[in-house]
Amino acid sequence: MNLISKEEFYKSVTYLTCYELLHPWSKSCVKACLFMSLNTVKGGTKFFIPIYLCKIIINKNKLSKRYLLLQFRCYIRSVIYATLYATFFMTSMCTCRHLCGQFFYYNVAFLGGFFGGASIFIESEFNKTLTTVLWVNLCIETMIRYLEAYGILKPNKLFFGVSFMVSCSLMTHLMMEHDPSKKFLKLWFFTPNTTDLKQMEKVKQCFHKDSCTNYIFQGAYKYFLIGYLVQTLKTVLPRAGIILKQPLLLLQLLFRKNNFMMASFFGSFIAIFRAINCYYSGKKKPEVMGFLASTSYILKHDVTIAITSFTTTLQYLLHPLRQTLEEKYKIPYRELLFMLCNGYLMHARFLHPDQCPQYVINMLKTTTNGAAENVFRNTLKWSTNKEYVKNYFFKIKENALEKFYRKLNF
Ligand SMILES: [Zn+2]
Ligand SMILES: [Zn+2]
C-alpha cells in the first residue's frame, strides 16, 4: 500500500540529499525551484484557460468589457497562485532538508504541501472558498481509501447509499433552518429556495406559477443539463493538455456513459424533491424531502456525491465556529484548513499514491507542466512497492518499465 514503507524510508531514503530525492534534473536547489516555477507558469496558463472560459460561458448574461477584464485579472491571479504553490512546495522541502539534515517520513511531502498551500492567500475570495471546500472533499475521499486499503471499511454500495441518505436528510434540514441572509459557497449542486418554502408554509399551497407537473419536469430538465455539464467538465478539464494534442478524444469524453448517469442523478434528485414538496403542499418536511430525493443515488453510485453531501452538512454545522474564528479572533480559518488539507494530500500523493484521488494526480501533472510528475517518478526509485512501480510504468508505456529496471538494476 505504501510506495516506500516507513522502515525502508529510514533505512535508505532519510539521508538522501534533496538533489537525489526531489530534483535530479539539477544539483542546485535554486535552479531546481526556478525550473519548477517556470514550468508551472506554462502549465498553469494552460490549466486555467478552460476553467475561466467555462465561467464566462455560464455567466454569459453578465458579459461586458468590465466583467471580461475582471475575469482576466482573476485568471492572472490564479496563474500566480499556482506558480507560488509549486515554488513554495519545492523551496520548503529543500529548506527543510538543509535545516534538519535529513528527511522525515511524515513531513517529507506534508511540509511542502502545507507551505505550498500558503499561496491560497493570493486567490480571490470566491476561489479561496471553492478550492478549500474541494480540498476538504478530496481529503475525506483519501481517508476513505485508506480505511478501505487497511480493511477497516469495506467498499459497500449499500453502506454508502444509506450514509448518503442520512447525511442528505440532515443537510436538507440544516439548509432550510439556515438564515438565508448568511450565504456561503457550497459544492452541493442544489439549495432549496427557503424564502419560497416559507411562503408556501404560510399559504398552505404550492408556490409556483405553472402546474405541479410542469414545475417538476422543468426542474428535472434544468438539473439534468447541469449534471451533464458538471461531470463532463470533471472529465475534460484534467485532460485539457492531452485534448489539445488529440482533439478527437474530446468527442469520446463528451459521450461517456458516466456523464449521462450523473445527469440522471441530478435530474431525478430534483424531480423527487419537488414532487414531495408539492405532495405536502407547503408543510415543512425537509428531512423527508432530502431522504427520499437521495434515493436517486441508485442511478449513480459515486462516493464523491456522498462525500460532497457530508462536507456540506459539516459546513453548515461548523459555520458558527468559522464566523467566530474569522470575525472575532481574525484567524484565517479557511486558508489554514486549505494548507492542512494540502499537506495531507501531498503526503498521500508521494507516499500512498494508490489512495490519492486521481484528480490531485492529474491536476499536479497539468499545472506544473509535468515537473511535479518528474519529482514523483524520481521517488519511485526508492519504492518498496515493486508491484505499484510495475503497474505505473505499464500504464504509461510498456518499454518504459524495461528502461527503468535496466537503469536501477533491480
Ligand atoms: Zn534542493
Ligand atoms: Zn406544486
UniProtKB/TrEMBL annotation:
Q: Which residues cross the membrane?
A: 74-91, 103-122, 158-176, 261-280
Q: Where in the cell is it found?
A: Endomembrane system
Which keywords accompany this UniProt record? Membrane, Transmembrane, Transmembrane helix
Q: Name one GO cellular component term.
A: endomembrane system
Entry keyword Kinase: no
| Family annotation (InterPro entries) | Tmem135, TMEM135_N
All residue ranges annotated as the Transmembrane protein 135 N-terminal domain in the record: 17-145
Q: What is its main location?
A: membrane
Give the membrane topology.
Answer: Multi-pass membrane protein
Q: Which family does it belong to?
A: Belongs to the TMEM135 family.
Descriptive protein name = Transmembrane protein 135-like
The record's gene field reads LOC108741781
